Amino acid sequence: MGIICGALCIAAEVLLSLFLERLTSGDFLGGIYLLGVLLVSVVWGLGLGLGTLVGSAVAFNYFNLPPAWSFSYGTRGLWTPIPIFLLVGFAISAIAALVRSLNIQADNRRREADLAAQLAHILLRTNDLKAALPPASRLLARALKAPNLEIRLEESPGEEHGEALPLTENGRQGRRAGPARRCARARTQASAREGDASPGGAADGGP
């Protein structure tokens, strides 16, 4: 999709530059070709942005730099706009890609914070922790895109499939039991209102 968008942007920029070339001196036409570079870099990242930049430079050289409708080779002065165009375009593409990366990171942090708040609302505002586990499991399964994920207070005996992971504050390592499903073993403290000081927990999840 990014390649198609880049090609369409270059085609639109060529048509616009040829139209404006009839109305003005054409000194600013190189800036028109940077609009597509900026768009592709923001939406699809640096790689496709640089590809669009190279295509835009070729189109700019062929359609707008004298002699028009041909590539400029021999005259030294005609090569001057191209390096400047590429340098400015690279800077714009890199900055746009950085902004895109920061926006993605901020969105991921927001989603994680929302998920943590929703899980806390479900698990901490209940008198029956076991009854709250199914809705918490469904919420976590949707967020992780693991439809069969299930949070359990206790590990199921004889579990032969999936992957068991401890859900502790610092523990990140787990035990793989088989390839069929993913599961995670949670160790958490039960509600004091249930009279359990520190029961074990487990979570099972599917691929």
Topology:
Blueprint: H1 2-21, H2 29-44, H3 46-63, H4 81-124, H5 129-144, E1 150-152, E2 163-164, E3 166-167, E4 175-176, E5 182-186, E6 202-205
Parallel strand pairs: 3-5
Antiparallel strand pairs: 1-6, 2-4, 5-6
Short description:
55% of the residues lie in helices and 9% in strands. It has helices at 2-21, 29-44, 46-63, 81-124, 129-144, and strands at residues 150-152, 163-164, 166-167, 175-176, 182-186, 202-205. The strands form two sheets. A four-stranded mixed β-sheet has the order 1-6-5-3. A two-stranded antiparallel ribbon has the order 2-4.
Please characterize this protein's 3D structure.
By secondary structure, the protein is α+β, with helices and mostly antiparallel strands. Helices cover 55% and strands 9% of the residues. The chain has helices at 2-21, 29-44, 46-63, 81-124, 129-144, and strands at residues 150-152, 163-164, 166-167, 175-176, 182-186, 202-205. The strands form 2 sheets. The protein has a 4-stranded mixed β-sheet.
Give a quick set of tags describing it.
single chain, 207 residues, alpha+beta, 4-stranded mixed sheet, two-stranded antiparallel ribbon, 6 strands, 55% helix, rod-shaped, disordered C terminus
